[in-house]
Each structure stands twice: as C-alpha cells, then as structure tokens.
C-alpha cells in the first residue's frame, strides 16, 4: 500500500464528522426497527397465559402460537438482503413499518387462534427484515471510528423495546386489576398489550422518510453525487470523497453482485466466513436468552410468584438487559468484540448453572424454597446481564461488519435466518421441556454457553477498527 493510500485509510478510520449529532440521529432512526424487533418479540410475554385460557390450549399448541412468529422472522431475514439490494435500505425499512402496523392491529383483534397465529407471522416477517436491514444500514453509514458504538444502537434499541413492552404490559395489567383477560377500552387486556405496538410502528415509518439512503447502495445504482454528499455528512468533509467512492465502488464490483451462489464454497456447502456468522447466530440463541423474554412471566408464575410480581420481575430483567447493553456499547470499541464475547460466555455459564440448580428443588406449597427462589431470581438477572454486555451486542455488530462487501447483504440474511430458526427451536421447545424437567432444560442452555467459548477462540476473528472494505 502506498503512503497516500495508507494516509487515506488512516483518515477513514479516524474520521470525525462535523455533524456527529446528525449521524447519531440517522443511526437512532434506523435502530427504531430494532426497537420494534424487541417490542414485538417480547410483548407476547404478557399475553401467554391469557391466550392459553381464552383458546383452551395446552403447552405444546401454545408454544407453536408463540413460536410461529419466528418462522416469519426467518423468512423476512432470509429475503431482506435481496430486497434491500434491489430497492434500497430505506424502502425496505418502510415495508417493515407497514407490516409491523398491520400485524399490531390484526393481533389485537383476532377472531380465532389461527388468525392470531397468522398476524404473528406477518409481524415476524417485519422483525426478520428489521434484524437484517438495521445492522447492515448502520454499518454502511457509520464512520469507521464510531462503527462499533453506533452498531450497538441496534441492540440497545432491541433491549429498550423489550423493557418498554414489559413496562407497558405491567401498566395495562394493573389497569385491568391484575387480570390479563380483564376488560380495558372494550378489549381484553392482552389484546390492548398487542395493539399498542401501532404507535412505535407508525413512528418508525415516519422516521424512515427523514434519513438518507446508504451511500453504498447509491453507488451500486450509479448515484455517485448523492453518495458523496452523504459520505461527507457521515464521515467528515476532510475525507477525500472521490477516493472513498472509488474505494467502495472497487470493493463492491470486485466480483459479481451479492447472491446466494456467492455464499457457496469450501468443504461444507457455505464459505467458512458464512459458517462463522451462522455459528454466532445459533450460539446467541441456544443459551436460551429468549426464554427470559417470551416466557419469564409464565416461568415465575410456575414456581409460585403471583402474576403482578411476575410481570414486575420481567420488567426488572429488561432493565438489567439495558444496563448490560450500555456496558457493551462503552467497551465494544475499546476492548474488542472477541474479549467481550468470552467474558459474557463465562458469566452466562455461571448464571445458567445456578438457575439449573435452583430449579432442581422440589416446590413447597407451589413455591420454590426461599433460598432457591432468591438464587433463581438473582441468577436470572446475572445471566441476562452477561448476555447483554457481550453476545447481545457483539453478534449484531459483527454480523453487520464481518462479511466482505460483495456478500454482506446475502450472508447477513443467511446468518439472521439461522438465528431465527434457532430462536424458534428454543421457543417452541421450552414449554414442553419445562413441563418435563425445568432444571435439565437450563443444564442444556448452560452447555451451549460453555461451548460458545472454544467456538469464539478458534473461529471468530476480531473486527475492531477495520474498514468494511478490509473484511474477508
């Protein structure tokens, strides 16, 4: 590399845009999809027992209704990359916003169980799209010097969405005198919980009109002047814009446009880097994190906690989730992605193992013994804290930046689809596994948390401080 090229690369890495506040606004607006992702994923937590009661279904059927949204998530994630490459990142966000809105209205007004399941699939498709387009867009507009922290906005938005959904559910439950099926505004309380999502869904749609298209997409469709303008806004006017456009264009056109075929290769169907992305996604889910957000109210009630307190504990867990995410946002660009992941895995192993021990005790008068009850509650919060400060943020940051330009959208779509399939497997199996042996269920999650450590050490490469054009 020549001295001029090295200076240019160094400048791109350390760019400090004059309008950093504008960059933060763009990132936060795009991350609104993450907020809806978190909100829509976890709002069902407040409706599980009401749906069981209203439609008189057992654990296995109930699990399918809860988990079926994840099938939509997988389809949305698998197709979002191609949609975004064809019509742009912003149009993709707007489609997701419409789907979120329609799903919220339909889920709040179902006339049968299958009808509710259908609207959850629609919402799931929107979540899948948001799970791909958010990190991809943020990675493409964020200055390299800030990319880790700005990339963390996606996970921050997800955990805030989870917390807000639990707080809204708790407020609605109290307004309905603690009855999930109590009447409120002419509907049952659980229907109101699902319908409130209309508000952030509409806001997401409106914000999508206030942010610019990705400069990399604009370059791909020949709109170089607009791309230069946006690069100047987000990376700083001191950057050689012509050189940056040429660098991005060269990287994008080095090979053919991203397609599923580009992901194939190596000894095991996909290229090794794609398998690493899939592995990160699967491990993130197989530690059982979404049990804490889809079933926590039901879980605490199953060990003797009353409904109002169980909703409150769900909310406090969500607050811990936010605290952990903030910690990760502070350290992801300082410590690096791999060290955070390893620290988080160790903490998760401890928290999950303690939960497994606590849940192995026999219930006394329908409740865990006092010691085991407190251990279970504290360990659950420890588990969520270590997940949030590590895998919750690191995986989304890395999926947005670890793939070469030419396959980023398609590879991210496959990795995100794998994540949703893994999420579905955990979500659909938990009620039946818990009915069989709750303690052993947590042993399984502990094992996966432990296995994630050698996976990171052997296969995951650090991406801290690298430009997207250097990946692969």
UniProtKB/TrEMBL annotation:
GO terms for molecular function: transmembrane transporter activity. InterPro entries: MFS_dom (IPR020846), MFS_sugar_transport-like (IPR005828), MFS_trans_sf (IPR036259), Myo-inositol_Transporter (IPR050814), Sugar/inositol_transpt (IPR003663), Sugar_transporter_CS (IPR005829), XylE-like (IPR047984). GO terms for cellular component: plasma membrane. It is a multi-pass membrane protein. The chain crosses the membrane at residues 20-39, 59-80, 92-111, 117-138, 150-172, 192-211, 273-295, 311-332, 339-359, 374-397, 409-430, 442-460. SUPFAM superfamilies: MFS general substrate transporter. Keywords: Cell membrane, Membrane, Sugar transport, Transmembrane, Transmembrane helix, Transport. It is found in: Cell membrane. Residues 26-464 form the Major facilitator superfamily (MFS) profile domain. It holds the Pfam family Sugar_tr. Its main location: membrane. It comes from the Bacteria. Belongs to the major facilitator superfamily. Sugar transporter (TC 2.A.1.1) family. This is Sugar porter family MFS transporter. It comes from Actinospica acidiphila. The lineage of its organism: Bacteria, Bacillati, Actinomycetota, Actinomycetes, Catenulisporales.
